[in-house]
Design a protein that fits this description.
CATH superfamily of the largest domain: Reverse transcriptase/Diguanylate cyclase domain
Largest sheet: 6 strands, antiparallel, barrel
CATH class of the largest domain: Alpha Beta
Number of strands: 21
Organism: Oerskovia douganii
CATH architecture of the largest domain: 2-Layer Sandwich
Oligomer: single chain
Protein name: DNA polymerase Y family protein
CATH topology of the largest domain: Alpha-Beta Plaits
Keywords: DNA damage
Strand content: 15-25%
Number of helices: 14
Family: Belongs to the DNA polymerase type-Y family.
Number of domains: 3
Distance between the termini: 39 Å
Shape: globular
Pfam families: IMS
Strand order of the largest sheet: 16-17-18-19-20-21
Structural class: alpha+beta
Radius of gyration: 30 Å
Amino acid sequence: MSTEAATRTAVLWVPDWPVVAAMGAAQVPAHVPAATHDGRRVLAVSATARAQGVRRGMRRRRAQECCPEIELLDADDARDAREFEPVALAAETVVAGIEVARPGLLLLPSGGPARYHGTEERLAQVLVERVVHDTGHESQVGVADGILAAVLAARASSVVPAGGSRAYLAPRPLGELVHVVAGDAQPVAELVDLLGRLGVRTLADLATLPAASVLSRFGDLGAWAQRLAQGEDLRPPARRRIEADVAVGCELDPPAERVDVATFAARRLAEDLHAQLVERSSSCGRLRITARTEDGRELERTWRCDDGAMGGLTAARITDRVRWQLEGWLTASRVALGQRRRQEQRQRRGSPQGGRGSEPDDGTAHDDLPDLPEDRPSPLVRLAITAEEVVPAGVEQPRLWGVSSGEDARARRALGRVQGLLGGDGVLSVTTQGGRDVHDQVHLAPWGDAAPAPRRADLPWPGRLPEPAPALVLDVPEDVAVLDDAGAPVRVDVRLAMSAPPATVRWLAPRAGAGRRVLGWSGPWPLAERWWSEAPRRRAYLQVLLDDGRGVLLASAQGRWTVEAVYD
């Protein structure tokens, strides 16, 4: 695609949106300096804080030194998206379809709206006025041929003439590419750093390189960056249509104590929800299941159902998700209540003064105390299902590599059938979570469960092994002997000093056999967890390359060596 044929794109940008959203949610006055942080560093800064020297990337303590009165707020992507919805709704009253690139940044096709309002400058003015009137937020609008030029134009509140995007971008540094990244910007930052060390420092330098050479040397990310630098569009903005969530619910009278009773009510709700979606010719991205117990607790869980994750949205499959969730809730409630009742029994059987294991004051023997009633979970009094992210049927986002061949959908339908036979926990998907040990970084969740991992992977984890991550983590570590050149065992002392360099790794029973020579190794890395407990976990890790081409992760604990994981 040439620059002349590129689609004219309008971009609406709300400056410093993460901190603006955080201040609005926390009711921080606009004149107070504020910033959001991830626990270590500042991620977004308000204009008043920036005027006092606070910058993105600063450590919290340094930011407080620059501005003692600064209000530090927690970063929250869900809050940013939720607070940005009124801005998107205000823009949609001016332009029929928009795309939310990220909270704080909207993409809009400008051709038709600009003709309706007269000029692109007038369209930008109307958008800014409508957003400030409906939401009170100041915004900036830019229009250009490609998305990168449009984003940079929005940051300057300007309109780039048709066909002039490449010249507009030419003198700008490569670091400007990060402004169009919606997710993790680290790969783009690494690409910019690499290109800079090779002498490619401006967008014009990148745009003039041979496309085939860029693709072969830097891969798809390099080709993506070059197309943006040339002022080209990767695709036109994906229009969205506002669709309200569809919710169904009912009161359970009498309250449901058993899964089968609650599932019977869930089946009627699922059929009603599915019928409403069919009547509207809509589908949904997520199902939110909520319940209220007799003791007033609110239970909630979200299941992903877009992109064929459920094998197709039907009333039966909706019912299955609700049933699995009810089983999990009622089972967890039963376990928690049982633990509480057993604790009460132990307290009743002990003396208030005598401590644990003492005889009761009234002289009654332990066996003479009456047992507490059978453990029963708190019954459910209300059940509801909500279809979220409702979209017109048939607007599923195409695959990254083009139109889907159907293999993914067939695989998802097969997994859905297996899950229907085995239950919610019968099919598990693997995600990465935070942790130091390689086993702790693996999180298994039921297929289709949209709940986030318990531990965030983007937080700092001191003592975590360096990249790359192993390809295979063994369920049961395998015992090995690590020997030096003389055949003596290699040991790691408390100061992390090794008795000798490793030369051979020999597997013990049941895989006993000839040892493998060590071609290279790195480490050791110490890991000490729960050092305050009675049973602390202390290990030293060693990465080893064997003569058969395998890389293994070795762990040493109390003189015992084991293979924890295998590298490709």
